[in-house]
Specification:
Rossmann fold, 446 residues, 8-stranded mixed sheet, elongated, 17 strands, alpha/beta, 6-stranded parallel sheet, 39% helix
Length: 446
Amino acid sequence: METRLRAVLGETRFRDRTAAGRELARALLAGGVLEGERGPLVVVGLARGGVVVAAEVASALGAPLDALAVRKVGHPWHPEYAIGAVAPGGISFLRAHDGLTEVQVEAAVRKAEEQASALDARLHDAYPAPSLEGATCILVDDGLATGATMVAAVRWARAQGAERVVVAVPVGAPETVRRLEEEADEVVCLLVPVELWAVGAWYEDFRQVSDEEVLGLLAAARRPFATAAEIEADGVRLPADLTVLRGAAGWVVFAHGSGSSRRSPRNVRVAEELHRAGLATLLFDLLTDEEARERRNVFDVELLARRLLAATRWLRGRPEARGLPIGYFGASTGAAAALLAAAELGDAIAAVVSRGGRPDLAWERLPEVKAPTLLVVGGADTVVLELNERAARRLTCPHELVVVPGATHLFEEPGALEQVAQLACSWFTARFEERAQALRGVRARS
């Protein structure tokens, strides 16, 4: 285990917890702490004050934010003095009895457990906790005094299945930092004064944090936020729109149809429903404006699939997608490209949804598709329906063909596109959860 410390160089106090969180995030990014990480990353703040610090860290790392209702076990005669700490799920740590009888200690532990359970219920009834199974968990607090709450937090993270646990704090007592090295995989502490006195002494503003403030930070962390980017493929740059959700269950990459673009109103509406279902999305142009003017490019599904593969590689290299499953949503010729790309990537793609697709354009490679595939076709789109029925018989992966009664090729009828969006949400969330369960099973056996 390793401890990374920054020497105290003149700046001996933080303005407030938010400023401390920004400095901590910079240290984590610059210090190589997360170098080589490929699995999911989750930032957990110790409620309440630690969540304010953690929110800045989670934002900088593009990671989901959670709050841990860990409570110190106070000495009955000196409640501010911690003899230990408890975390949800029956996790406890006692560092000393300090002259107390077993009965007195048990009573103090029960009181702390009641407080932790009440706070945990309030926080997670509103905002379910992201899974730590196989993840790197960064535990954040506003400082370490005795370290009892952080030891309990580390043990809680291990019990939740975290593969690696990193403790990150702005300030800590030297002996406490050393003790945490024995519990965590890595400890990052910015200031380690010879005499701590109290954590609050190292902040200009150390006001108390309310439950409402913590709930507000959790709510803000779960709002989707959009960002623009460019993806390089075949020597051209393709505009892209990402909608990131910290704590997303997975990513859906869209492949638009002929004569369309990433701004396809139908795909945008489906993407909005996916966001509400907790999924992040990438919509990008498969062709440049100049390329799209050449009609033959629109139906060159091998070219389109190559662009989709490039976008997938690009997405997998971004921190927001680390460790998350990826699925494809394809429309018309974009569906053929999605199936070709899925055949190429095998188990790397978790699911495919085709809306009014042309799977016949990927005919030769349909048996190679491993990703569970949902084919959605309008009942009035008779020619495309027949093509999908034939394609379904050729698929060897788990698949379903769903017909939306009365819908035509563009699903312009009232309620038709809403049905497509609901079907896509259900398909992706179920397949992503299956992938997560399978991964948990592999880790449990290893």
